[in-house]
């Protein structure tokens, strides 16, 4: 029987399959194609550089064992990477990398040289008048990897974050986009990556900033005519972490400068880390060219923590605070607060406080009270999608009708109400609300809000609608 790339690989697969989780097998091994076998070297084709790095990081031992079993001690593995057409090249191209031969980290750039070349550069973090190019990282050392507990819900994002921290700018996770709902640890993880990089590479300039603050700085710079300084400042950073990029939606000026900054950093092998409350595909009002950049690297989701992870987060919190609490109480909290780690922590902190201030023992009754209050009191951020759904349901129409161009009065009114509630309950700009609710402009939304205000005062029935709907949102 002749030995071919296919036969070798199939035997390897059978062995690997027996040694890892079915899900991992499906994700990481099924997409691989054997392409060539020559001189005891098996070439396998993987879909991306990310894929190759992941295999090397996690499965290199297993692969080696499997291959050695098949071809003997001299077995070699070569990855053939089919690059996607992301950099404007017409044809997809391939790259061959032998196993365990990682591409090198981009050389360290010194900001000193640039400083002297451009002594007038203004640091947007500095109060005008005081010239200082020292860049504070804005990192919070309390958000680190040690206290970012691992669970199924965050494993991919956490390991990708670790990989980036080990080789900032040197992996294909660039940008690394971490996305997920409120209170699931995006900000914590973003800081943790930065903190870890500062530990490992103290000479690198790391900067954490929220997209909101970034936007404010940009607007300021336009007012003061220092837009170029603003851009140059950000181009000095080695590791740029921007939190909550969904905030940039609808803000085309800020998106535009960010695009330039991003390109510069990326081309120079600098690392960009982004967080967002939604996946790139679901982002609204972000320019296509920017969205496509977001997809260049890796998007990793933080999901709601499962029960075990919730328990370990609570126990870890208690441990760090030096507090003991009966297991049944911890269990109760973990069972009742499921979708938000911030709430989970809030409830346990509140319980700790109650018991220490009142010198009371924590009972299940007290836990019930706290959890109930806690869950009720945390105002949930509603999304514009959700608002449209609720308003459409209320008026028994579908969302497409609500968004349609029709001038039928009851539909127009429903649409205006949706805009009104979006303005009231979300932080979205008028422009962004307009474009998400049937592609209208900001003036239409403004007009809708005024109309709803007026009608609510003059029309009893209308007032009732508003009251009913308001209840549904709060
Ligand atoms: P987001 O930015 O996604 O809204 P945060 O990063 O602010 O969420 O996290 C909310 C809270 O939950 C923070 O106090 C954070 O420390 C905590 N937290 C989130 N994920 C974890 C985790 N995996 N382990 C421990 N604490 C976590
Ligand atoms: Mg956050």
Automatic annotation (TrEMBL):
<dbReference type="InterPro" id="IPR001957">
    <property type="entry name" value="Chromosome_initiator_DnaA"/>
</dbReference>
<comment type="function">
    <text>Plays an essential role in the initiation and regulation of chromosomal replication. ATP-DnaA binds to the origin of replication (oriC) to initiate formation of the DNA replication initiation complex once per cell cycle. Binds the DnaA box (a 9 base pair repeat at the origin) and separates the double-stranded (ds)DNA. Forms a right-handed helical filament on oriC DNA; dsDNA binds to the exterior of the filament while single-stranded (ss)DNA is stabiized in the filament's interior.</text>
</comment>
<keyword id="KW-0446">Lipid-binding</keyword>
<comment type="similarity">
    <text>Belongs to the DnaA family.</text>
</comment>
<feature type="domain" description="AAA+ ATPase">
    <location>
        <begin position="172"/>
        <end position="302"/>
    </location>
</feature>
<feature type="domain" description="Chromosomal replication initiator DnaA C-terminal">
    <location>
        <begin position="383"/>
        <end position="452"/>
    </location>
</feature>
<dbReference type="InterPro" id="IPR020591">
    <property type="entry name" value="Chromosome_initiator_DnaA-like"/>
</dbReference>
<keyword id="KW-0067">ATP-binding</keyword>
<feature type="binding site">
    <location>
        <position position="185"/>
    </location>
    <ligand>
        <name>ATP</name>
    </ligand>
</feature>
<feature type="binding site">
    <location>
        <position position="183"/>
    </location>
    <ligand>
        <name>ATP</name>
    </ligand>
</feature>
<dbReference type="Pfam" id="PF11638">
    <property type="entry name" value="DnaA_N"/>
</dbReference>
<dbReference type="InterPro" id="IPR013159">
    <property type="entry name" value="DnaA_C"/>
</dbReference>
<dbReference type="InterPro" id="IPR010921">
    <property type="entry name" value="Trp_repressor/repl_initiator"/>
</dbReference>
<dbReference type="InterPro" id="IPR003593">
    <property type="entry name" value="AAA+_ATPase"/>
</dbReference>
<dbReference type="Pfam" id="PF08299">
    <property type="entry name" value="Bac_DnaA_C"/>
</dbReference>
<dbReference type="Pfam" id="PF00308">
    <property type="entry name" value="Bac_DnaA"/>
</dbReference>
<protein>
    <recommendedName>
        <fullName>Chromosomal replication initiator protein DnaA</fullName>
    </recommendedName>
</protein>
<comment type="subunit">
    <text>Oligomerizes as a right-handed, spiral filament on DNA at oriC.</text>
</comment>
<feature type="binding site">
    <location>
        <position position="186"/>
    </location>
    <ligand>
        <name>ATP</name>
    </ligand>
</feature>
<dbReference type="InterPro" id="IPR018312">
    <property type="entry name" value="Chromosome_initiator_DnaA_CS"/>
</dbReference>
<dbReference type="InterPro" id="IPR013317">
    <property type="entry name" value="DnaA_dom"/>
</dbReference>
<feature type="region of interest" description="Domain I, interacts with DnaA modulators">
    <location>
        <begin position="1"/>
        <end position="96"/>
    </location>
</feature>
<keyword id="KW-0238">DNA-binding</keyword>
<feature type="region of interest" description="Domain IV, binds dsDNA">
    <location>
        <begin position="356"/>
        <end position="474"/>
    </location>
</feature>
<feature type="binding site">
    <location>
        <position position="187"/>
    </location>
    <ligand>
        <name>ATP</name>
    </ligand>
</feature>
<keyword id="KW-0547">Nucleotide-binding</keyword>
<keyword id="KW-0235">DNA replication</keyword>
<keyword id="KW-0963">Cytoplasm</keyword>
<dbReference type="InterPro" id="IPR027417">
    <property type="entry name" value="P-loop_NTPase"/>
</dbReference>
<dbReference type="InterPro" id="IPR024633">
    <property type="entry name" value="DnaA_N_dom"/>
</dbReference>
<dbReference type="InterPro" id="IPR038454">
    <property type="entry name" value="DnaA_N_sf"/>
</dbReference>
